[in-house]
């Protein structure tokens, strides 16, 4: 009676959700203070004050039909213009309001972009491990083919040899995500340059533009002044998928955008296909009140120092305990090597210590675990004894 | 480089949008007061006071991470429970929070439901003319087959002979929309009973449940105490697609739901497929602040009497001028017979009088036009001279 694929997708929870639900149940049994849940990436830093202030101001000064009415499918002109100005000033770009299509968040940005680009099911979207597991769902659901490039486990940049091998005549796009979920690394300028050069060469070789889909919800969450290169400046066929979920701590409000710069080959046609895909997937417009909030808060962020504090606390203590960790440069995830080859078994042992870690197998990187540190600092401190206990199992 | 279908969808504006954009341009030339734009269905009645009050209260009493954080994919339990209680009390149903899946509005509700149900491209979704033109886009984009049943132009109920002919072994679902856009009619209890009996018989004949998708964004917009039957009470395999766009005048906020009652065959599997389809289309959760607003405002509406006033004003004056109109029982559309066979040509003549009416050809009902009366009363009054002028062309 129903689509078997949709049934499977809906009845099998993701590993992350599964663990998160377990954590809530376990907390009822042993007390919330005794469960150390590092499973989920829900921002804990509050939205900056401008969010609440903007909502109040809009409610007090704009009439109801304008606040809550349909915007154009592309989004409010004022919002798109504000974003363009901000990006031009910050990254020295040359984008215009008409290059933007407002969306219901990063997942929508990705699904719409993939749907817009997919011509046949032979079209391949290449993702680079470790990667956000929903990429596979989004690609396959839009009727395209998912292809994975194994991780560069030395520096968590890009394994270029494997990437070059993965690209062929069917390659439609490469999806990158930097700052990265789950590794916490940021692709360096050198990485981006090398990627651009490879894609230019391969586009020439196969006679069609290979698109770079840059999924950037963590762009502003970078530590120690590490620079996150603005990808459109290095590779012309770049489409940016953005969300305000993390920068403004608004994950539930579903607000983001797709940027199709003029430099993209046939950019007008690509933009039109984006509009068409949005329509086909049932996205009428991005939430209107929050479009207006974005126009007022563009460029602001929550207090990212709070995440940095958590990073330092965890990284220093876990490495001192003998854990091998990738030092996060951005996002709010710590990527740690499991103390045995089987990361799922390792996470099960962690779970027995009431330590909820996500095995990175679904992220295309077995042998590692993801620790989400958008949590209370106090929970991190309390969790150390559990981390000690877990490590001691392997020292015995 | 892009999907040809998505490009076509994105570059060809709908007739309605085309006319709406023309209206804005024309207003700049001849003055806003001289253009009578009846093209678009954007609610003009303000949201009820509870919307603003609820937002203020939530901002003042709930912490930022809870207001703006991810909800579960199904939606906040509190919101779903509030909707269930309201519907049980109002329509004497027996639904629970777990029967609801919160969505980003009616278009999302429909796309998700269609995607959940579609197994192969042979699966047919039957729509009854006149119908909202995006139904065709939604059905075809989810990979199913669109099938239209011609209008019952006598009473604008259902042409049952034609519907019976349209149903076959491939029929997956029938989509109905009452109060109807564009006809303004409401399916009577007799119509719903006859429909239920036909679908029961056909489900038996073909050995599978034929689903009734009831698209109900106009449910509360009904005049003269006409009853809008609650369809799940008449046909067990009914899935309700709802939106708060019209009842609370929140079309831009993208908030609605899908209701899968327990009575639906394999309801747990259907609900799971709905969750899977939401995930596959990139819907992570419905906007979180407005989920909380709905929990507080469920059952309220904007001032529907304002629409009724407009209806009476238009209906009385246009019929007096010799126009043949279907008397609207609900929604905010007046369906009028064109004064010549070619409704597109008729609308062109109307446009020459600065009267923007939508030819119903795209609604599957050539020979008719849709007049959207969610407009300022004053514009209606000013438009009468243009309607007179238009009618006079045909009296000559």
Walkthrough of the structure:
- The structure is a homodimer of 396-residue chains.
- With 396 residues, chain A is an alpha/beta fold.
- Chain A contains 14 helices and 13 strands.
- In chain A, the strands form three sheets. Chain A has a seven-stranded mixed beta sheet, sandwiched between helices. In chain A, strands 9-10-13-12 form a four-stranded antiparallel beta sheet. In chain A, strands 1-11 form a two-stranded parallel sheet.
- In chain A, helix 6 (105-117) runs parallel beside helix 7 (134-141).
- Chain A is globular, with a radius of gyration of 21 Å.
- The N and C termini of chain A lie far apart (54 Å).
- The model of chain A has no long low-confidence stretch (mean pLDDT 96).
């Amino acid at each position: 009676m129903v689509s078997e694929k949709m049934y499977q997708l809906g009845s099998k929870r993701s590993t992350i959700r599964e663990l998160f639900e377990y954590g809530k149940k376990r907390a009822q049994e042993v007390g919330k203070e005794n469960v150390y849940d590092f499973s989920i990436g829900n921002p804990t830093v509050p939205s900056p004050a401008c969010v609440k202030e903007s909502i109040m101001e809009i409610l007090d000064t704009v009439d109801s039909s304008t606040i809550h009415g349909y915007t154009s499918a592309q989004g409010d002109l004022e919002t798109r213009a504000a974003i363009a100005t901000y990006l031009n000033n910050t990254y020295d770009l040359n984008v215009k309001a008409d290059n933007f299509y407002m969306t219901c968040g990063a997942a929508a940005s990705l699904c719409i972009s993939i749907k817009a680009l997919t011509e046949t099911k032979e079209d391949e979207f290449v993702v680079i491990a470790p990667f956000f597991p929903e990429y596979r769902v989004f690609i396959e659901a839009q009727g395209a083919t998912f292809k994975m490039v194994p991780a560069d486990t030395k520096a968590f940049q890009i394994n270029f040899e494997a990437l070059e091998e993965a690209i062929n005549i069917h390659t439609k796009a490469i999806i990158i995500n930097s700052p990265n979920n789950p590794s916490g690394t940021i692709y360096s300028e050198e990485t981006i340059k090398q990627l651009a050069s490879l894609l230019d060469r391969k586009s020439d070789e196969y006679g069609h533009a290979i698109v770079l889909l840059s999924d950037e919800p963590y762009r502003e969450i970078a530590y120690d002044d590490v620079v996150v290169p603005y990808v459109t400046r290095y590779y012309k066929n770049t489409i940016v998928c953005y969300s305000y979920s993390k920068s403004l701590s608004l994950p539930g409000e579903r607000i983001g955008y797709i940027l199709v710069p003029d430099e993209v080959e046939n950019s007008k046609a690509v933009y039109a296909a984006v509009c068409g895909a949005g329509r086909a997937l049932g996205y009428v417009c991005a939430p209107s009140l929050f479009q207006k909030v974005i126009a007022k808060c563009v460029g602001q962020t929550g207090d990212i120092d709070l995440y940095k504090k958590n990073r330092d606390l965890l990284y220093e203590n876990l490495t001192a305990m003998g854990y091998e960790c990738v030092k996060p440069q951005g996002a709010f995830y710590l990527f740690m090597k499991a103390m045995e080859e089987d990361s799922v078994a390792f996470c099960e042992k962690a779970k027995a210590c009431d330590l909820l870690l996500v095995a990175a197998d679904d992220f295309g990187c077995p042998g590692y675990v993801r620790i989400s540190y958008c949590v209370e600092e106090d929970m991190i401190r309390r969790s150390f004894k559990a981390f000690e206990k877990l490590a001691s199992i392997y020292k015995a």
